[in-house]
Amino acid sequence: MDLPPKKTPQNGGTPQSPSSRRSSRPRILAGDPTDFSPPFQIQRPKRQLMPFVFNSPHSGRHYPASFLKASNLDPISLRRSEDSFVEELFAGVVELGAPLLHANFPRAFLDVNREPYELDPAMFSDMLPPHVNTRSVRVASGLGTIPRVVTDSTEIYRNQITYAEADLRIKHLYLPFHEALRSLLQETMTTFGCAVLIDCHSMPSLGLEDPADNNQNDSSNDIRPDIVLGDRYATSCSPELTDIAERTLQGLGYSVSRNNPYAGGFNTEHYGRPAQGLHAMQIEINRALYMDEKRISRLRRLKRVKKDMSQLAHQLGAAAPNFLIPPRQSDAAS
Q: Can you list the positions of beta strands (E) in 216-315?
């Protein structure tokens, strides 16, 4: 079984060696991607006991001084784009035997739940190369790989940036992040014959956060459910997986919606290949359950939500062998 092909442009290039990067490095005006050390973290169990990989792509909360200086916004306003503390909510999965990958760079700086080169031409002082996707719905919303706006559509940058800066972020952060995710999924598939990506996110309790990923029926005044499960309308993972997640969460007292207002972003769509034994499901958690949304601070209830997410992972792991039949086994049986 092979993972989905890498989503990279034909002439997008690959990360250069450190020496060549130093010699051809553009002038950094709006945040240096090498300021993130490490750019992401992988928490591995002593032994992987279940065919699950948990990923928190938007929980990074390190903001370089140069990025803050280049921004129109104060740190709290920038942080409203974060999935704050989500990696903490799912930290218990490591003890249960599943790896957890999470970013340290913030979503406002680079969004790894996008194609590698979804860029808004309005952001840049120079021309973009032909391989850049400038016409996606996410780009039109200002929420491409390098976001132009934050959640309330406020512009992030004081001035335009150069394409070279965007390319540097993608090569230093985006591509290595997805290489790490692909490696974890490949290791899992090699060990278990199948793999499940759980893409972990949070959502504001009211209003639209990401119009590009939302169901068009969502209203800015709607009160969100506690949890939204996204499986791209039963195309990115086994329906039984979503059923078990929904029943487990409802049993724990949460209100649960499926695919509305979030059906799953790039990661769910790109990696979800159920027919090949690779499943992907997105989980969105209502921020009011565990944090003060205005102050971006933890509430005491965070511990309970963390415990419940561990219970969810346990139930999914226990049930997985009953319905996640690796293709090689099903082929042999037929």
A: 227-230, 256-258, 278-286, 291-292, 297-298
Tokens for 334? 């037929």
DSSP 308: H
CATH 3.40.630.40, applies to 28-333 = yes
Tell me whether residue 53 is exposed, middle or buried, using C-beta atoms within 10 angstroms of its C-beta: 0 to 12, 13 to 18, 19 or more.
Answer: buried
From the number of C-beta atoms within 10 Å of its C-beta (0-12, 13-18, 19+), residue 235 rates as middle
What length does the chain have?
A: 334
CA gap 240, 318 in Å, rounded? 13
Token pair, residue 292, equals 């003060």
Domain ranges of the chain: 28-333
Per-residue pLDDT reduced to its tens digit, 221-268: 578 999 999 999 999 999 999 999 999 999 999 999 999 999 999 999
**Amino acid present at 31:** G
3-class DSSP state of 54: strand
- Decide: 169 and 33 in contact? Cβ < 8 Å: yes
